[in-house]
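Project standup — Tuesday

K.O.: blocked on the structure for the chain from last sprint. Re-posting the sequence here as requested.
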Amino acid sequence: ATAAIEWAAERFGDGLVLASSFQDCVLIDLAHQVVPDVEVVFLNTQYHFAETLWFVETVRRRYDLNVRVVSPEVDPDDRCLDDPDGCCAARKVVPMAKALAGRTAWMTGVRRDEAPTRASTPVVGYDVGRSMVKVNPIATWVEADVARYAEDRSLPEHPLRSKGYASIGCSPCTRPVGDGEDARAGRWAGSDKAECGLHR
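H.V.: unblocked you, prediction finished:
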């Protein structure tokens, strides 16, 4: 993973940005070892759990992170109830496009084991829709790798992890997962929606 990050940092320099949802800080810890001043983008959708906002600040202080918080250009509403795709577009996809403008590459913590929709995630690929390189340094890791790394490095844990939240997004659309469910089963539960649109 650090080799992929080092390659990206050397190849793209200031054109590289790291996007994080802060459901954990594994990728941030890895990146901090290689390029500690990399800009970290966090999308404040206006619907995050209070625990997530607390965790962002905890991690920011721990690493003295260069965090850029990007917010949507719309006011809070109930769109998630009847138009989740439109809600994600307004609160995630459009703000991310703004955050990535002028950049040449972005890094994410997407892993192949998270869901069937992510099974073919490459470590390095070309994001055609955004005309930029996308680097997924821990794409080949599984949940056990993440847990072991976090334990070995004594990383802080998102408070909702211990309450059964395996994948943490916006509060109206996220629930804990049950035994045997994949990590993202708690996202948009009861619908056929599996992705927000950031990782097409």
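K.O.: great, moving the ticket to review. Residues 84-100 form the longest helix (17 residues). Strands lie at 16-19, 39-43, 66-70, 105-107, 124-127, 132-135.
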